[in-house]
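fwd from M.: "can u put these together and see what the complex looks like"

so here's what she sent:
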Amino acid sequence: MKKNKNTLKEPFVRIVKRDTIKIQYKILIYAIAIVGGLLLSGLISVLFSEKGLGDFFQSVYAGALGSERKFWLLLQNTALLLGTSMALLPAFKMKFWNLGGNGQVLVGCLAAIACMFYLGGKVPDSIIILLMFVTSVAAGAIWATIPAIFKAKFNTNESLFTLMMNYIAQGLVSLCITIWVKSGSGVLVPIAHGNIPDIGNKYLLPIILFVVITVLMYIYLRFSKHGYEISVVGESVNTAKYVGIKVDKVIVRTMLLSGAIAGIVGFVLAGSINHTISTTSANNMGFTGIMVTWLAAFNPLIMILTSFFITFISNGMVEVRKTFMFTNDSISNIVVGIVYFAIIVCPFFINYKLVFRKHEKEEIKK
Amino acid sequence: MKNLKKILAVVLSVLMIVTIFAACGKKDDVKEPDKKSVKAALICLHGDSSTYDKNFIDAFKAACANKGLTVDDYTIVTDIPEGTACYDQAADLAETYDIVFADSFGHEAHMLKAAKEFPDVQFCHATGTQAHTAGVANYHNAFASIYEGRYLAGVAAGMKLVELYGDAEGKVSDANAKIGYVGAWPYAEVISGYTSFYLGVKSVVENATMEVRYTNSWYDEAAEKTTALALIDNGCKLISQHADSWGAPTACEERNIPNVSYNGSTAEKCPNTFIIASKINWAPYFEYAIDCVQNGKTIDADWTGTIATGSVEITALGTAAAKGTQEKLDATIAGLKDGSIKVFDCSTFTVEGKALTSFVADVDDAGDFVPETEVVEKAGDITFVNESAKRSAPYFNVIIDGITAITK
């Protein structure tokens, strides 16, 4: 060993890329992250209140599964989040970063509410619902296709474009509410017409609908020619061009599908759940959906699990805020943020491992 | 295989710890029903970063403490949007709580739905309009005659204008008598609020004019701030607002323009420009409603708080307030209490150049937007619009002369 001692010194910790990782390690990493995140979040909650850690875990559980209503709500919220994530999935697979899920859901919602508002009482409900479906899908698709066309033709940045479309959608909703609500209160009272009839109970329809869409999406991406083209474009645009795939066409077609599914989410929100609209009707699912999609590594079936888990945590956290009486938005955001953060760092530890300096070497140095 | 065992051991032990914690938290579910113990819950649209919701949250905590409710007897749920989520939350709370309050106008339809489903639980909705006609026994509305508070705040604002720009006789030039108002929505609650504020200013500065701009949102900090700045740029010498964020007060502090606030004092963050704030103190209503449940009495379907009930409050004056303001306010409060001053005194304002002799308002709010109730009344020599008398929620929505409302 001729090298200087200083250069020999190994850093305390190195980050090394893993080649493969066993499934049980993957599960272990997630388990540690979730439990660790919850524990940390719980400790902070305890710090800001007089309640105990036990109350924290009890609340998370109670908030998600505490009663029959909450159980159904959990499934329904999961289904809606899953639906929104399904809308993002094909675009993400194509490496088209669609950050406009919120806006696409919102315009879908707006189109449905417009049908309910203008046709309610004048046309039979069944026809209104049909029209709602068609216009919602069309609105969502148009909203997603506009940035896609610009991307395909002029290579504009799709993240910024889709993001900005969210604000335009919100502005449109705000404008419509101003026009529709004559009292000027800005609150559209739930519309009694064009409500989608319940099947079984009022929670079931979105659950069944979005599970079916998920399965179809799985088949579409896995077994269809379109699905294959999407993954090739996602891997390398040049390869796609070389093998004769019309990239422009794939981008526009995929975003059309993406937006259409977001439109269906809007249709369900308007017709089956809220029967009214506000600028926050999309409930930020367009962004939460990104997390669902990434955590599942773009696998539609795993996305069922991730969307369930994220909904579980977020519903649980509503109860935590209630139990701990967190009326301060910052504290609630910190508490929820910690759990999400813990989950988001998992892919890092799955792809990389930390190698610590070994003790033996230090002994040799002596 | 060895690894697998290790992992299994870790996962199982972690699970065990979690279960233990979870078990610790379990309380005795079986509680002896005690007739006098009442459990109360409040649903809020935002958390306490919104001045509007903070006002409710503080009052609710105070009222619960006054009525002997411990922290285990009441809860507050924040960030509940004005959609089905409100119904879900209300229905969920109804399973444990005896009385559920909600603080936002858009919660109404959902509270009403929950009230119909849980007839044994009392649902109280602040600022709503439906209870007096809905005929649902356990559903109630409440508001306060906040126009009186706004009027008082307007008087303090007028005093400030005179201090800043008044000549030897206390006259203010037309250019300096222009004030600005950031409104949320072009809705009766907002219109009634700014009109009473304006009339308060006008009672001191006769030639005052006011420009109103809307944000079309109850809570949009950026929009409220830019709107306030736009008003200042347009020559407004004093700003007030009816919107729920810190947007307008901070804009005023930046530009050193006096600000009249709402929902609570902003003196802490805006020490140089804060004059006064009016607010509804919801504690009297919360106490009244909780008291009714404790004693098995019926809650009024539609309850209006006043200065007398302690529901309409003005805060302590800011250091920026003009000298002599407190004395003037005391005199005005006395006048409002004995009825010698009426806020919407028809002799103090005109509409399209004429005095208002009749005003029919849409009090029943049946969804038709057709006004049906005459609200101009006479008391002694004074002809006035009797606001919040036929229904707790405001219904005065006429744009009077001197006010320019810009809806774009």
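replying to her w this: Residues 40-144 of chain B form a domain with the Rossmann fold fold (CATH 3.40.50.2300).
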